């Protein structure tokens, strides 16, 4: 507590004593009230004092951030584009709570489980914040016994990871998920997921990309063929997953020293994981001495071949790369896996920023069954778009002046240069709002004309209605075009219609449509 | 663990022993691999067994729920209508993290603080889930030293309250907030908040309502005039707040027995709080013997008078009721307070549902200062719309068959009655998606015609493209109108253009525009 607060407390005590004394002495009500109001004033002061000064740094929690209006404008624009693609493919929307029973998340994420946020035990259920949108979807499907669903879900997820916020890595971040649940023919929904990713990346227009694909069955078959014991498949797979960040030598060392893979097996793996290509590679590997004898590898390769065939029919084959080094971290994948990577750094102002992986996903046929008491499986395949990296690229472009955004859509500002026109402005605003026109005015009684016009310029408001005594007396109002500064008088009665015509003309100008 | 899982473990152990024996005996690689794959198959089986059967009830956390596609459709529609109103008034959008440093929330909610969700201390910062959107806004303004902002914020908030889910009371629920921050002339932004509420309730079209208004300064002045000691104002105010649910007698008893108000003071309060009306009541009370001598009461009454004047100019005065029993629970209000209440039960099927309070808010001029090291104040006024009650009314109407919703926007289904047409369907889908047409197809290789048409009917898809060998050979495709069942052949080359024309015609039909 501050010194001033302490002295204030003392004053309050003294004043309180005085009031009590007056009351005990049955002094006149007026006199008592007078002292009571002094006491109240002191207490009001204390209420303000009491809270501060701020004892803690004013910040958002580590790894999180606020979105200001510019950032929200970018975010809403990006999300809207993604939703448009999801809806174009007929996906329905669902939502789940931000937290789940802790048990729902247990045993789904392997090593990464340590990154889950738990809620404090305040009596009742033990809860954790969702780590992704995939496990909640599986829980939702199992709980409601749904066997077919094409859904999208756009929401924040939570990971107690080391944040790298300038690169778009947060502890609270958006995922945009598209998943197809249901028992269908092989690779048909899987190929559509890849098509969805290409449509999203094309519409976001953030540079060239490649869609890497691989298959968990092929990875398992490859490990088996190289002599890795089955109980080390998942651990070896996690190590292969590091190949996008570390050179093969380091990955090899980790395999041998930490995962207990023999040097011979590691070297054999090393030969496979440097391979990438298209259908011809899948066909070559189907004839590979070791892989062709491994059931899992053959299954994986046949899957990849079929997927590539459908991708060709979808017209996206030039964007797909079959890459044996792609492994993906999560445990629950069972079939095809994929990842979209931007292939060029993005130019922001005079600097370049590397974005890397921007979407990923795969098939997980056993996850829903983990929630069903009879292990009834619902095969699923899906993709998750990592929009935070897109946001951070666009925000950097905004900061560098490469792009501009408007944070409000106001079309008309109701202004007046004269005093005592607030009442008239209120009436005009109400009329325009009731007509659905996006309208704003100053909250001051007597704002300066210059300030009002400046507000229009700063906020990109195209039109102003300027109210004045002489015009009102003649039954007209002025409409001002903020950019051209031209002013026209229109009859007060036809103001709404006139504004609508002008707004619609301005919108056509902007959109370039007729 | 189930019996089958135990017997599986035994089999795995035996098979493992066999493999080890073969290896020790340096048997041929082929023979070893054969037994290894059997072992792998058993282990794969175990992975599925291992997770279950489900040891816990599959549910969402207490007081929370999933939104299925129908519910999401309703939710998105309601939120979109609200956003349209907020934007019409020029509000910018911001967002804040779902959790805050616990200290940010401390001391802001009075008795309700016990309802805050805390996160577990996993090392690092101590965090709590947000309880409303108002305190995060105040933190945001103070942290960024923003003195003027008109913003909206639509997000979920969290309260460990007793849920009443059928009536739309949840522990995780949406708030839709509109606030105006900045030092302006009295009651101008306050009146706009009321105008915003009327526009929202009118556009949601959920029945007649009244907007109750009161003023914290008037309440304080009233308590003072009735002889309540200043340190009991807030507690007395909380008790008055219960008048919407409890009769006066009960409230009076609580005041006397629990809050230490004298019976005489309580009776005087009782006379005031039964008053409600309009400007004439404010004028009458300004002449009231007791209130007219209390500075706070006079300030509050003058404020109410001015507010009513602006409401008349906004054309919403018939919806406003000045009601001295309105108190509002939260501590941080300092000026005008208001609450929108539906005045009629809503008819759902053959039943009626009472909704009650649906929006509320007020002025809080001291909250931002609590976060500023120099107590720099930013006066604020705002309103929060409680959309969960709207959702639950509309969901009940949906369940009763009073309304219908579509959960996907698909315009075209690509179908085929013939076998081996998947490739052709994929190519047509890609073409339509690339043209921006909302398109779907079956994920089966050879779906039945009847199932495909049924899918269209069930999902309200208006058009189907029907592919067939004979048509393709003639360079045409069939377009089928699902409702009328009429089929027309169109040239394959002009399919996209033809579909766009038909979709646009159908949309005009639905929207009734020309």
TrEMBL record, chains A, B:
Signal peptide: none annotated. The lineage of its organism: Eukaryota, Metazoa, Ecdysozoa, Arthropoda, Hexapoda. This is histidine--tRNA ligase. GO terms for molecular function: ATP binding; histidine-tRNA ligase activity; RNA binding. It comes from Manduca sexta (Tobacco hawkmoth). Residues 63-394 form the Aminoacyl-transfer RNA synthetases class-II family profile domain. Keywords: Aminoacyl-tRNA synthetase, ATP-binding, Coiled coil, Cytoplasm, Ligase, Nucleotide-binding, Protein biosynthesis. GO terms for cellular component: cytosol; mitochondrion. GO terms for biological process: histidyl-tRNA aminoacylation; mitochondrial translation. Its EC number is 6.1.1.21. Belongs to the class-II aminoacyl-tRNA synthetase family. Residues 4-60 form the WHEP-TRS domain. It catalyses: tRNA(His) + L-histidine + ATP = L-histidyl-tRNA(His) + AMP + diphosphate + H(+). Residues 15-49 form a coiled coil. InterPro entries: aa-tRNA-synth_II (IPR006195), aa-tRNA-synth_II/BPL/LPL (IPR045864), Anticodon-bd (IPR004154), Anticodon-bd_dom_sf (IPR036621), His-tRNA-ligase (IPR015807), HisRS-like_core (IPR041715), HisRS/HisZ (IPR004516), HisRS_anticodon (IPR033656).
């Amino acid at each position: 507590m501050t010194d001033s607060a302490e002295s204030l407390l003392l004053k309050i005590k003294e004043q309180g004593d005085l009031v009590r004394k007056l009351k005990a002495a049955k002094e006149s009500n007026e006199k008592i009230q007078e002292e009571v109001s002094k006491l109240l004033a002191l207490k009001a002061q204390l209420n303000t004092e009491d809270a501060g000064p701020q004892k803690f740094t004013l910040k958002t929690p580590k790894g999180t951030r606020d979105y200001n209006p510019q950032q929200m404008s970018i975010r809403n624009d990006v999300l809207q584009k993604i939703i448009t693609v999801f809806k174009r493919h007929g996906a329905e929307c669902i939502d789940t709570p931000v937290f789940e029973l802790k048990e729902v998340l247990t045993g789904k994420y392997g090593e990464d489980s340590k990154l889950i946020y738990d809620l404090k035990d305040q009596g009742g259920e033990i809860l954790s914040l969702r780590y992704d949108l995939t496990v909640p979807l599986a829980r939702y499907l199992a709980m409601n016994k749904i066997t077919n669903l094409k859904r999208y879900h756009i929401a924040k997820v939570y990971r107690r990871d080391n944040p790298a916020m300038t690169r778009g890595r947060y502890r609270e971040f958006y995922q945009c998920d598209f998943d197809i649940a249901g028992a269908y023919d092989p690779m048909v929904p899987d190929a559509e997921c890849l098509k969805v990713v290409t449509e999203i990346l094309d519409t976001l227009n953030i540079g060239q990309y490649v869609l890497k694909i691989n298959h968990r069955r092929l990875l398992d078959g490859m490990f088996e063929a190289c002599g890795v014991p089955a109980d080390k498949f998942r651990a070896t797979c996690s190590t292969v997953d590091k190949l996008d960040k570390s050179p093969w030598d380091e990955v090899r060392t980790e395999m041998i020293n930490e995962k207990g893979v023999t040097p011979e097996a590691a070297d054999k793996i090393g030969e496979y994981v440097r391979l990438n290509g298209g259908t011809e590679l899948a066909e070559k590997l189907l004839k590979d001495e070791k892989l062709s004898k491994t059931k899992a590898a053959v299954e994986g390769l046949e899957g990849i071949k079929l997927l590539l065939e459908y991708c060709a029919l979808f017209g996206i084959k030039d964007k797909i790369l079959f890459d044996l080094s792609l492994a993906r971290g999560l445990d629950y994948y069972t079939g095809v896996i994929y990842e979209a990577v931007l292939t060029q750094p993005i130019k922001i102002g005079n600097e370049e920023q590397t974005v890397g992986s921007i979407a990923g996903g795969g098939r997980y046929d056993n996850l829903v069954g983990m929630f069903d008491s009879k292990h009834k499986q619902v095969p699923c395949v899906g993709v998750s778009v990592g929009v935070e990296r897109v946001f951070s690229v666009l925000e950097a472009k905004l900061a560098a002046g490469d792009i501009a955004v408007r944070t409000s859509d106001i079309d008309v500002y109701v202004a007046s240069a004269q005093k005592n026109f607030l009442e008239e402005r209120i009436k005009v605003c109400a009329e325009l709002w009731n007509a659905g026109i996006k309208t704003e005015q100053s909250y001051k009684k007597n704002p300066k004309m210059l300030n009002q016009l400046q507000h229009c310029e700063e906020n990109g408001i195209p039109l102003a209605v300027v109210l004045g005594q002489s015009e009102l007396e003649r039954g007209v109002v002025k409409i001002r075009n903020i950019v051209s500064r031209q002013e026209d008088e229109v009859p007060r009665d036809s103001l709404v219609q006139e504004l609508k015509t002008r707004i619609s003309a301005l919108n056509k100008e902007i959109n370039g449509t007729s």
